[in-house]
Specification:
heterodimer; A: five-stranded mixed beta sheet; 7 helices; elongated; B: alpha+beta; nine-stranded mixed beta sheet; 9 strands; globular
């Protein structure tokens, strides 16, 4: 049985922890709002990009002049995974969820005899994947210094990826990130970005019959070869923004839980403390009374 | 008074303009072009330059864009800019940095094709700088 002093110390320390988790929760809530706004502000661009891409794909018509970034290398041997996670922990299962999703994917690919290469964005995913697949990690991109996520960050990553592709170091590129559904639910998602998934653009084409009469300046193929790399950057940018919002959402609910748990713990400890103090008082009283009776 | 049409200027970070406008001047890949209502559908890449937006309510606004795409249909015009800022908010240091980078690119270009491309880009940036400096 801990002494009264020990209990008092415990209660004080849990209270201090609770204050910290509460503060972190409020910080996460404020940051979440900002991240959410950023994610929403970026949405029009990626939507327009999608429709433009759909139109132009139709114009080029999957002919011989479609760039390799879109059609792929025709092989399926080497896979590049871009795993986007948070730079910081203390956000519940957020990072491990993404990492687990990526790991399942890696296992499947390895079982099929494919070669896997990994680029980690964010420290946490790197820490988790390093344990099992250290030899496959090509690079770790550090965004810790970045205060507000800008398009330039995503563009830099996209450039690296495209450079690797042009060198022929991989055939298929998949992006792993966490889709921001709501504050309490983030869904780890895998999205193939090279070769570009054309299923969705095929649907958009049939819906928009007017696109056939477009005039192109310069030639469609040339525009496309400019557009596709940019589209990759946009996809990565969107993933990063969704991740940022998801991280804050996960952190907020994790810290909310922590605050609540600390509260419960304080309650329990206070009850034990009060009982024990009462027990001691009773014990002392009994001693005094029995002492007086003995006289 | 010309007919108004819908114009949107979007950068990856946000939607800058979404308004009814009278005309828009775009620095297209093959020269500047003015877009008005009922323009034939055109898709073009854009060069670094100044976009001039004439609002339907009168008033003119100018934006600096660094590359991107314009998607023009009779009903409207969407400009997807890689990076866009209003002329009055242009960061001179940022522009200078871009020019510096372009210069380096031109210097490191391996073959003639890449060099002429880099030099062309540099030329566009310098013109752009000249165009907004008095502003």
């Amino acid at each position: 049985m801990p002494s009264l002093k020990d209990l008092r110390n415990r209660i004080a320390s849990v209270k201090a922890t609770q204050k910290i988790t509460k503060a972190m929760q409020m910080v996460a809530a404020a940051k979440l709002r900002r991240a959410q706004e950023a994610a929403e502000a970026a949405r029009p661009y990626s939507e327009r990009m999608g429709s433009v891409l759909a139109n132009i794909t139709q114009a080029v018509g999957g002919g011989g002049d479609a760039p390799a970034l879109m059609t792929g290398t025709g092989k399926d041997d080497v896979h590049l995974l871009i795993v986007c996670t948070a730079e910081r922990g203390l956000c519940g299962g957020f990072n491990s969820q993404i990492a687990r999703h990526a790991r399942d994917h890696i296992r499947r690919l390895l079982a099929d005899g494919k070669q896997v290469k990994i680029i980690c964005v964010g420290k946490k995913g790197f820490d988790i994947l390093r344990r099992d697949y250290a030899s496959m990690i090509l690079e770790r991109i550090d965004l810790r210094e970045v205060k507000t996520l800008g398009f330039v960050n995503a563009d830099a990553i996209a450039r690296k990826v495209i450079h690797l592709f042009n060198e022929g170091s991989f055939d298929v590129c998949t992006l792993f990130y966490s889709q921001f559904k709501s504050v309490i639910s983030q869904v780890p998602t895998a999205q193939q970005i090279i070769p570009a998934a054309t299923a969705s653009s095929a649907q958009a084409e049939s819906a928009d019959g007017a696109s056939a009469v477009y005039e192109y300046e310069p030639e469609p193929g040339e525009i496309l070869s400019d557009l596709i790399p940019r589209n990759i950057a946009v996809q990565i940018f969107r993933a990063l923004l969704e991740n940022a919002a998801g991280e804050m959402g996960a952190k907020m609910s994790a810290m909310d839980n922590a605050t609540r748990n600390a509260g419960e713990m304080i309650n329990k400890l206070s009850i034990t403390y009060n009982r024990q103090r009462q027990a001691q008082i009773t014990k002392e009283l009994i001693e005094i009374i029995s002492g007086a009776e003995a006289l | 008074m010309a007919e108004a049409f819908k114009f949107e200027l979007v950068s990856p970070e946000r939607l800058l303009v979404s308004a009814e406008v009278e005309s828009v001047v775009i620095p297209g890949a093959e020269g500047e072009m003015t877009v008005m209502a009922h323009h034939a559908p055109v898709m073009t890449t854009i060069q670094p330059g100044v976009v001039t937006v004439k609002a339907a309510s009168g008033g003119e606004e100018r934006y600096v864009v660094f590359g991107g795409f314009a998607d023009i249909v009779p009903a409207g015009c969407t400009l997807l800019a890689e990076s866009a800022v209003a002329v009055k908010d242009v960061d001179r240091a940022d522009l200078a940095r871009r020019i510096q980078e372009a210069k380096e690119d031109a210097a490191d270009a391996k073959d003639d094709q890449a060099r002429s491309k880099a030099e062309q880009f540099l030329g566009q940036l310098t013109t752009l700088e000249g165009a907004i400096l008095p502003a």
